Amino acid sequence: MKVVTIATDLEHPFLRRLLVPSCDAMGLNLVVIQANKKGFRPRDKLAILTDHLARCAPDELVMFTDAYDTLFIRGEEYIRKVHASFSHRVVFSAEPNSWPLGNLGLALQKDPPVRPYPYLNSGGFIGLAGDILALCAKYPEPPSEQFPLLRHLRTHDYDTDKLFRFSDQYYWTLVHLLESDTVGLDNGAVLFENFAPAVANFCELTRWTSDFRARGKQAASYRREHARLQARLQSPSGAAQVHFAASLTKAVVLDLLDEGQLPSWLVGVLRQ
């Protein structure tokens, strides 16, 4: 089994201080693929990952993780056991927010939401290399044409491909909806847990980030997220990967690390 991540900045503090040391501590084989920083977009991860998977054995278990906001607190034995318990061959992390489609993403859902994490998050997923590669080959582009609602919106000049093509999460959300027998979500956070805040309107996160960039630690959004995350982290995660997906959340985690305020269940793995 290998853990794969894609990074344009090998000196990013979260990658260098949290993800890499946590994988070392858990005995995980982390493969860091360096991508060209110039013009890199999240959707480019798909092509880079496809190229890597094509050189893997089809039956090799591969766990993808984002580079700049994740770390691991459990090792391969746990990951293999839990992955085998799923009925789906490929399992994605899940989150409380429908991003990037927002309310439109809710309209595409075929079934009621499964709490506490109803919606796909592409910052972590696991499956055999051959299974993931087969999905990439079957859907070389976001399969938006297979959704009547998205086709209808396109006739009114609302083209979701143009709006959201930058995001690999858009791509994988559509693939999951079409391939629900193969692609499952970790709705209960047994493999992947997302610590980003739940929001009614995803634009709130953009406003919070702008507030933080303008005012730093004095921003109301920063103080609110600092307090929320400290309270949330009092309860240890039962997952293998923990994900601080929002940019403000990630900034708070790095500050808590510098302040010596991260809980022992997180930083303890870095000292093993």
Report what the structure shows:
With 272 residues, this protein is of the alpha/beta class. It has a single domain (2-191, 263-271), classed as Spore Coat Polysaccharide Biosynthesis Protein SpsA, Chain A, CATH 3.90.550. It is built from twelve helices and nine strands. It has helices spanning 13-26, 44-53, 76-85, 103-108, 129-138, 148-155, 160-164, 168-178, 203-215, 220-232, 247-258, 264-267; strands at residues 2-7, 30-34, 61-65, 70-72, 90-95, 119-128, 183-185, 192-194, 241-243. The strands form two sheets. A six-stranded mixed beta sheet has the order 2-1-3-6-5-7, with helices on both faces. Strands 4-9-8 form a three-stranded mixed beta sheet. Helix 1 (13-26) links the parallel strand 1 and strand 2. The chain is globular, with a radius of gyration of 18 Å. The relative contact order is 0.16.
Quick one: overall form?
globular
Percent of residues in beta strands: 15-25%
Question: CATH topology, which one?
Answer: Spore Coat Polysaccharide Biosynthesis Protein SpsA, Chain A
Strand order of the largest sheet: 2-1-3-6-5-7
Gyration radius from CA atoms, angstroms:
18 Å
Return the structural class: alpha/beta
Task: Give the number of helices.
Answer: 12
* Weakly predicted, low-confidence segments: none
Indicate the CATH architecture.
Answer: Alpha-Beta Complex
CATH class: Alpha Beta
The profile of the biggest β sheet is:
6 strands, mixed
Number of strands: 9
Residue-averaged pLDDT: 94
Distance between the termini: 21 Å
- Tally of individual domains: 1
> What sequence of helices (H) and strands (E) makes up the elements?
EHEHEEHEHEHHHHEEHHEHH
Please bin the fraction of helical residues: 40-55%
Protein name: PLOD1-3-like GT domain-containing protein
InterPro entries: GT_PLOD
Organism: Phytohabitans rumicis
